[in-house]
Amino acid sequence: MKRSGDMREVGRSLPKIDALGLVRGTPAFTDDLAPREALCVVAVRSPHAHARILSIDATAALAMPGVLAVFTWKDVPRVAVTRAGQGHPEPSPRDRFILDEYVRHVGDEAAIVAAETEEQAREAARAVRVEYEALPPVLDFEAALDNPVVLHPEPEIHENFPIGFEPRRNVASAYNMHVGDVDAVVARSEVVLRRRYYTQAQQHVALEPHCACTWLDVHGRLNVISSTQTPWHVRRIMARALEREVKEIRVVKPRIGGGFGGKQMLHGELYCALATLRTGRPAKMVYTRREVFEATNTRHPMRLDVTLGADRDGTLRAIDLEILSDTGAYGEHALTVFMVAGAKTLPLYNKVEAVRFGGRTVYTNHLPGGAFRGYGAIQGNFALESALDELAGELGLDPIVLREKNMIAEGETSPIFAIMGEGTEGVEMIVESCKLPECIRRGKELIGWDAKGPRREVAPGVFRGLGMALAMQGSGIPTIDMAAATLKLNDFGSFNLLIGATDLGTGSDTILAQIAAETLGVSTGDIIVYASDTDRTPFDTGAYASSTTYVSGHAVRTAALKMREEILVEGARSLGCEPARATFDGCEVRGPAGAITLRDLSAKLLYNEHQKQLMTTGSHLCEKSPPPYMAAFAEVEVDAGTGEVKLVDYVAVVDCGQAINPNLALVQVEGGLAQGIGMALWEEVVYGPQGHLRTRDLMSYKIPGREDLPSIRAELVASHEPSGPFGAKSVGEIGIDTPPAAIANAVAAAVGARVRDLPVTPEKVLNALVLA
Amino acid sequence: MNISLELNGRPANWDVEPGEALLEALRRHGVLSVKRGCDTASCGTCTVLLDGVPVPSCAVPAPRADGRAVTTVEGLPDEAARLGACLAAEGADQCGFCAPGLVVAVVAMSRELEHPDEAAINHYLAGNLCRCGGYVSQTRAIRRYLQEAR
Hints:
The complex is a heterodimer.
Chain A: H1 19-23, H2 30-33, E1 39-45, E2 51-57, H3 59-62, E3 67-71, E4 102-103, E5 109-115, H4 118-127, E6 129-134, E7 171-179, H5 182-188, E8 191-199, E9 211-216, E10 222-226, H6 231-242, E11 249-252, H7 269-279, E12 283-286, H8 289-295, E13 302-310, E14 316-328, H9 334-343, E15 354-363, H10 377-395, H11 399-406, H12 415-419, H13 436-447, H14 449-452, E16 455-459, E17 462-472, E18 482-489, E19 495-499, H15 508-520, E20 527-531, H16 548-575, E21 583-584, E22 588-591, E23 594-597, H17 598-607, E24 615-621, E25 629-639, E26 645-655, H18 662-681, E27 713-716, H19 739-751, H20 762-771
Parallel strand pairs in A: 1-12, 10-11, 14-15, 19-20, 26-27
Antiparallel strand pairs in A: 1-5, 2-4, 2-6, 3-5, 7-15, 8-13, 9-10, 9-12, 13-14, 16-17, 17-25, 18-19, 18-24, 21-22, 22-23, 25-26
Helix pairs in contact in A: 6-7, 9-10, 10-19, 15-16, 18-19
Chain B: E1 2-7, E2 10-15, H1 22-28, E3 47-50, E4 53-56, E5 69-71, H2 77-90, H3 99-112, H4 118-124, H5 136-149
Parallel strand pairs in B: 1-5
Antiparallel strand pairs in B: 1-2, 3-4, 3-5
Helix pairs in contact in B: 2-3, 2-5
């Protein structure tokens, strides 16, 4: 495989292929593309955190102008599904219906209205009379297990394979694993540290609200455009929920305005489909921002109990991580997020004699948890990387020295790789690329770790502190994530690249075009990308689990290698020589006695001689999941009088293998860091005492603005992953993982206040100062 | 009610509903660059120029546009192309949902502020949120655009 030195398209910061069109505002998003005559679909949402619907009277609503249909739980198939966009069969419990007799969080759908205009639909929704029997809600996730209030008593719900599903106990999933005897090793350790940490619910806040539209085409098939990260999973789950054949449905993902995991669940698709199938008319559903807050998903809040056993010299001997996770009203991504909290943190410290991980996810009357960038790893990272800093403090060691002594290295493995996958067993894996030492060295230099020291007083009562954290993620889900790509040679030398991969705005269409161009030897400008259409492109599991570059990238490369072969064969035929004696450099096929340009060959192949269409397909199954790594460093300024924390500097150095497009890789890291900093300092989904959301718009829920962040500095280190396409690993999620721990560690260094409960607010800092 | 406005330099005559936001009226009339992001004038994706002043169109009643000039990114093709090129060169463009509103705000800033430094840029554009990037590459791109525009 080519290395970066002699590559022409890979490794270049080419502009995103859709950049100009998007900046000009070209209609490209779901709501831009919905037919103008589409009906507007609106939900009647529950005002109760937990209630049974006694009756629904839609008479008045149906009599209002423009109203075409009202749907209640009695009008929809009684088929249990999960709305989590995951592989088949889904590792999330099937615990949900299109509409149900019970509502389980404020904002849960009680009925659906379709009308000619959005205003008419909203007015009609207000006129639908729903009689509720309010039930006591479960709002404390630490009291959910075996609570007398059971959220899911319905008999139809089930797990697809054993995930520890015990709905009668409010348990959505449970998992336990261990290597060695943790209790015995802890008992023999010279120093034992036990700490409890909490992470909060966070909202994705993709700037484009969730949106879907549906219509019937000339063949009577249900067409769906959706702001989704997983078109194939949406199609399969829609077919099940609507009791239709998969072949009757087509799902297309157009441009989408950010995802971050928030669009890895189904939202409006099923409701639009109800309206279209009933009326024959196109229908669309555009969530308001309030609906995005009240009726989509959040990051799973967790309670994490960490026990570390170590010797005085800093040798880490045992790690025990026990977690309770709040999956809210439905078990979307319950098990898999939970497992990633261990699977993508614990291998960082692979030299321990014993490791144990386990716990449960429980149902509450909160918003359902869901996929969210980091996907458990950020929660696990906050607990583990905070605890390591606390341990370093107890041992009197530099926190970096403690990590360097115990962290994973190239050529090593961890038993956890084989034991824990996502929902199932994992696969054995030797780490072939891990540049953590370089990441740490460079990060220390950039932040000035040695020069500044951990703590300085910069004004009376104002202290600056440095903190750091390491992180790992994965690159796709082994044995599950599968992607395919097709290349078609056009007359006069261009190629269509048809991919199932789902660009969320990350630029994956661009980097996949770069991989195709590099492999073929042509320019990226000669690759015309069409993606994410269940009818017209090959399959792809979707954009999640940091899989696109590593898994879809391999599929594209395979398709391009096959295309090269076909071009050689046809070029050689045209030149009258054996293929073995011909070469192709991307411009022309050259034989012993002459050459033919790709431009001429492609035109001849379609118009003049031996006419045939060259079209090749590559597919790739993810066989291992090489982690990207990161070392991150935060400098904070803490006012010991007010508890106010100001982030002064943030440095992140990443090993993502060979970056296919360095600029696009860096902006992934920068964006992940911003979201992680938001979670560390400001973002929190807050409920009132009856389960009503207090954070339901961008005035009450704070995401980082440009004046809130320091000039984040992200760098990539040179790295090459032998198993990746052109040496690449993933980069989509790793950026988010470090800020909570690195910032909490920096605050502790600055003023001695250890905050173990995110976000790190001034109030908590002051409380911790009192305790310290 | 009926309103007359100048939309991107051309006269337009629209029927709008009382209480309809300018954002909704624009999208209803096919001006789709203007995006609905938050409904509370917090995110900046619906920014348009009203008589040259940047406003969140979700918070402006459509009748207020009567007799006034409304400019969206469709009316700023050259500026959009130049800023777009800078954003692309820095790898700062991601999903693009916030981009049209950002272009409009940057154009207003470039007309209003003489030589804005980074703090002034961040302050002027504070109402234009981005959730994909960390603002760093975007700020670099904006500075490059302002330099080239001079």
